[in-house]
Amino acid sequence: MSILATKDTRVVIQGGAAGLNAARRMAEFCYMIRRPLNVDAFVYPPDSGKTNEVPYGSGLLTIPVFKTVAEATATHPQINTSLVYIGADRACAAGMEALNDPKIQLVSMITEGVPERDAKLLAQHARKLGKTFNGPSAIGIVSAGECRLGVIGGAFDNLVSCKLYREGSFGVITKSGGLSNEIIWICSQFADGITTAIGIGGDAYPGTDYVTYLEKFEQDPQTKAVVIVGEMGGDLEERAAEWYGLKKRRIKLLAVVSGFCQESLPKGMKFGHAGAKEGLKGEGSARSKAEAFKKAGAVVPDTFGALGPAIKAVYEELVKSGQVRPIPDLSSEDLPKLPKTVEEGMKAGEVTVTPLIKTTISDDRGDEPLYDGYPASELINKGYDIPHIVGLLWDKRLLSKQEAEIIKRIIMLSADHGPCVSGALATIIAACAGIGLSQAVAAGLIMIGPRFGGAVTDAGRWFKHAVDNKMSVDDFLTYMKKNVGPVPGIGHRVKSVRNPDKRVKELVSYVKSLGIPTPHLDFALEVEKVTSAKKDNLILNVDGTMAAVLVDLGFPVDSLNGFFILARTIGLIGHWVDQKRQESRLIRLFDYLVNYAAPKRREVPPLK
Amino acid sequence: MAKVLEGPGMGLMKKWGITVPNHVVVTSVEKLTTLGDANNWLKKSKLVVKAHEALGSRFKLGLVKVGLDLKGAQAAAKEMLGRQVGSITVSQVIVSEMVPHKEEYYAAVKSTREGAEILLASCGGIEVESNWDRVKKLAVVVGDTPSPDALEKLAKEVGFSKDLAKKVADFAGKLFACFDNEDAQYLEVNPVVVRESDGQLVALDAVTLLDADARFRHPDWDFPFAAEFGRAYTKNELEVMAVDSKIKGSVKFIEIPGGDTAMLPAGGGASVYYSDAVVARGGKLANYAEYSGDPPDWAVEVLTEKVCSLPAIRNIIVGGAIANFTDVKKTFGGIIAGFRKAKAEDRLHGVKIWVRRGGPREKEGLEAMRALRDEGFDIHVFDRHTPLTDIVDMALQRQTN
After folding, report:
1. pLDDT of A282 higher than 80
2. What confidence score (pLDDT) does residue A275 get?
3. Are A169 and A227 in contact (CB under 8 A)?
4. For the residues of A299-364, what is the DSSP string, one character each?
C-alpha cells in the first residue's frame, strides 16, 4: 500500500519539453517494476495533435498530445492525475483546468516561481473540490514498487540502489526537492525503504501541508513511520507537530528542520528556499519548530547527518515489536536492466558501431575545430591565413607562404566580375525577388558550369593529361579536337589578343616572377600561342590560367572548380547585400528584349 | 519576497486610492532645488527628509529630519546624500510634506496561508509595537474581498467611533485592494493619520513587500527591488549574481565576515542543513553558497574561486545530497578547476577540503576529487554511504583537536 501515487494512478502531463523529460523518467520507473507506462496523455496546446515519443526499455511508446485536459480525459477516461510543467505565468490557469476536470483527483505542480496568490487560489480551489493539489515547486511523488510521479528518485541506477522496486515501511514528506533523493536513500540504507515520498515544494504556501499527508499516512497500514524534512519559515511544521501530539498516533514521526544557522548570522541575512525566508527566533524559526516536534513526541536529530542512525533506531524498534518484518533485497540480476544508449554502451566498451560516414579532414569534437589535425586558434596565432585553411581542407597539406600568396591572388582576381555575368545576374534577380541570402547566392552558383567559370577543373585535367603524357602542343590540339572538342580554358567571349585579360597577365607574370617550375602554365601558354594565332579570341582565359597554375601547385584536379566557386561566392554575397541595401524591387525582363517567335493568337479547336 | 522602498511603495498605495503626502525622491540637492522651483508645496509646507535606502533605525542614524523648510531640506539632503552606513551609501533621499495631525493609527495587510489578514489598531507609531494586543485582525480568504460592513465592524472593534470607523474601514479596504491587486506579501502603514486641514486619512509611511515572482504581470513595476539584507551586496556577491542570471540552474553566494568555515555545497535544501551542521558543531560560517539545477561547470568554477578567496578559512565543505539530475562529474570539474586556480595563486595554504556527494556520474566525479590529493591538496572525499553532514563533524572535530 501507499498513498497518492498508486498502481491505479494514470497520468496526464501538462507541459512541453520538461514534461516529456518527466515522462521518460517515469517510464524508467515503470520499466523497473515491470508495469506499463502510467502516462496516457500530454496536454500542450502548441503541440496538440502531435505525439510525444517516450522510450520504454528498448522500445519507444507514442503518447498523444492534446489541446485541453478535457480532451485528454475524454479520450483516456482512466486518467486521474495531472502533473503540471507549465511556465509560471500560465501555471495557475493550467492547474485550475486540471482541478476542474471531474476525472482528475490529484494535481502536482513542478513549476517554480509561481506567484503566491496563484498558489493559494489553487490550494483553496482544490480544498473546495475535495481534491489534492501538491506544489508548486514540487519535485514529485514516488511510491516504491507502484508509481512515480515526476522526476523524484533520480536516475535509474539510483532507483535501484534506493530499493524503489519494492515497498518499505517509511513515509517521507519533504519541502526540499534536492534532498528527496537523499532521504529516500537514507530510508533504504538505515531501514527497509519507503512506502511513499512526497515533495511538497519549498514555497511559502505549499498547496497541501504536512498534516493532510500525515493523515493519509496514518490511514495507510503499510506505513509505520514518517520522516519530515522541514525548513524554517511559516508554521507548517508547528501544525504537523500539533497534529502528532494531539492524540496517540499509529505512525512514528521523525523530523529534521533546517535554518538553525540563521540564529548566528548577521541581522537581516537569510537564505534558502522562498518558504524559508521568514522567521528568525520565535514562531517560524528552526528552533521553535524543532521544539514543537520534540514536545509532540517526534524524534528530532540535531543534524541531517544524524537522521540515518535515528531512522535505524526506529526501524529496529519496529522490527523488535513485530510491526515490521525484514524483507530481503533483490539482487540487481533479478531486476530489469535499463538498456544502455549507444553512447553509454560505447563508453563502457560493450558495443562497436560501424560508422556511417568517414572524414579525413576535420574534427569538431574538442573545444575548437581541428583542420587536418591543426587547432584553428593555433593556426591563427602562428600567422597562417585563409589560403592555408583551403590547403588543409582541400588538399590536406600546409601550403608554403609562396603557395598561399598565389592562392590569395587567384581568389582576389576572381572574386567578382560585375553584375552582367550569369552568376551575378542570377543572384541579383533572386535578390530583387526577395529571396534570402543563401538561396540567392546558390542561384548564382548554379550558373557556374561549362560556359561560365566552371571550366577550371576540365582545363586542369586536360593540361595535366598533356603534360603527363608529354604531348606536343600540336598532338594535344589534335587529340582534343578528335576526342573532347574545344579546349577548356581557351577562348573568351569578349577578351582577345588585342584586348587582353588583365587578370590573366597579372597572374601569369606573378607566378613566372617566382622562378618556380610551372610546366602546366608553360604548356598552356604554348597552346595559347597556337590557338590565338588561328583566331584572335582563342586566348588562355582566366579559368585556364588558374587551372594550369593550380595543377602546378599540386592541387587535385577535382578541387580546381572550387577556387572559382570560393572566390566568386564573395562577389555573389556582395551583389545580394548590395540589392538589399538599395531595397531593390522586383525586376522582370522588358518584352522588347524578347523575340516573341511563338505562334500568333489563334482559336482553340473544340476538344476531341 | 521583495522589498520596495517608501517612494515607489507610496506610489502603489496612491494608485489604489490611498492618500499619501506629497513627496519627491531625489538623488542630488540640485534636483531638489529644481523641483522646488516647480512645486509650490515644497516652498510652502513643512518638510520631512529621509534617506531613501533599505536601512533600519534611520532616526537613530540621523537620517530622518523633520519640520524643515525648503532651505533646511536642501541642507539635510546635502548632509545625507553620499553618507556611508555600513556597506550602504545613501544615494537617494525622499522629501515629503509634513502632515499636521493629532492621532496616529496603524493599518497593515499580511499574507496568510488561506489568504490575508487585515490588521488595524487605534494607536500608531512606536505605541502600537508596545501595545500589540490592541491590534485586531480580519481574515480574508484568497479570492474574496472584505465587505465594507466587515471592515467597519473591525474598525469599531479596534475602538474607532462611528464616523472615523467608516473612514478607517474605507482606508483598510483600499489598502487591501492594493495588497490583492499588486501581488503584495506585506503592506504596513504606520502611522495612518487624520490630516487636520481636511480630516482625510493619510498614509505617512509605507512598508511594502511584493511577490517578485509575480513581476511578469505587473509591467508598471518600474522600480528596482531593494537589497533584502540590510546591507549592499559585495563585489563578489554581485559577480556571482551576474553569473547566476546568465545560466540554466543557479549559483548563489553570500559572504559572512569573520567566519572560518567556507561552504561550497549543492542544492538549496542541503546547503542550509550543511550550514546548520557547522553552527551546531561550533564552527563559524564564512559564507553561504549553493549551486543547483545542473549549472554549467564554468559557473561552478567562478563560485569556487569566490569561496577560495574568503579570508582566514580553515575548512571548505563541498557537501551535497544525492543529486537528482545534477551531473556530479561536470559540476565537480568546475570546482576542481577553481581549486587549481586558487592553489596556483597560493590561496589554500593549510585549508582542508571536505567532499561528500552522490548522484549522476558520482563515481567519476568523486574519483576526480580524490585525485587532487596527488596534486598536494589536503582533501578528504566521501560518497553517499557517509551521512550528509558527517563531513562537517569530521572537519570541525579535527579543528578543535
Report:
1. no
2. 46
3. no
4. B--SSGGGHHHHHHHHHHHHHHTTS----PPPPGGGSPPPPPPHHHHHHTT------S---SSEE-
Q: Residue A151 in contact with residue A25, Cβ under 8 Å?
A: yes
Mean pLDDT taken over chain A: 93
A273 an active-site residue? yes
Q: What angle do CA A229, B240, B321 make, to 5 degrees?
A: 25
Cell digits of residue A582: 538599395
Residue A319 near residue A326 (C-beta atoms within 8 A) = yes
Kindly report the length of chain B: 401
Pair A124, B296: CB distance under 8 Å: no
Residues 299-328 of A with CB under 8 A from B: 302-309
Closest partner residue to A116 among B111, B384, B389, by Cβ?
Answer: B111
Q: Is A267 on the interface with B (CB under 8 A)?
A: yes
Structure-block grid coordinates of residue B365? 566525479
Q: Are strands A132-134 and A106-109 parallel, antiparallel or unpaired?
A: parallel
Average pLDDT over residues A309-331: 93
Per-residue pLDDT, B1? 66
C-alpha cell at A597: 517567335
Judge whether B388 and B319 are in contact, CB under 8 Å.
yes
- A278 and B256 in contact by Cβ < 8 A? no
Q: What is the pLDDT of residues A207-251, one digit of tens each?
A: 999 999 999 999 999 999 999 998 887 889 999 999 999 999 999
Q: Is A258 on the interface with B (CB under 8 A)?
A: yes
A289 touches chain B (CB under 8 A): no
Of A512, A449, A421, nearest in space to A524 by CA: A512
Q: Let me know: does B97 contact B114? Beta carbons within 8 Å.
A: no
Q: What is the pLDDT of residues B120-151, one digit of tens each?
A: 999 988 888 888 889 999 999 999 999 999 99
| Separation in Å, CA B104 to CA B47, B121, B123, B200 | 18, 9, 6, 13
- Per-residue confidence (pLDDT) for residue B224, from 0 to 100: 84
Rg (CA), chain B: 26
Determine the pLDDT at residue B81: 95
Domains and CATH numbers, chain B: 22-97 (3.30.1490.20), 104-217 (3.30.470.20), 235-397 (3.40.50.261)
Joined grid coordinates for residue B261: 568555515
Interface of A with B in 500-519 (CB under 8 A): none
Query: What's the ipTM?
Result: 0.90
The C-alpha cell that represents A557 in the structure block: 584536379
pLDDT score recorded for residue A345: 86
pLDDT in tens, A501-559: 999 999 999 999 999 999 999 999 999 999 999 999 999 999 999 999 999 999 999 99
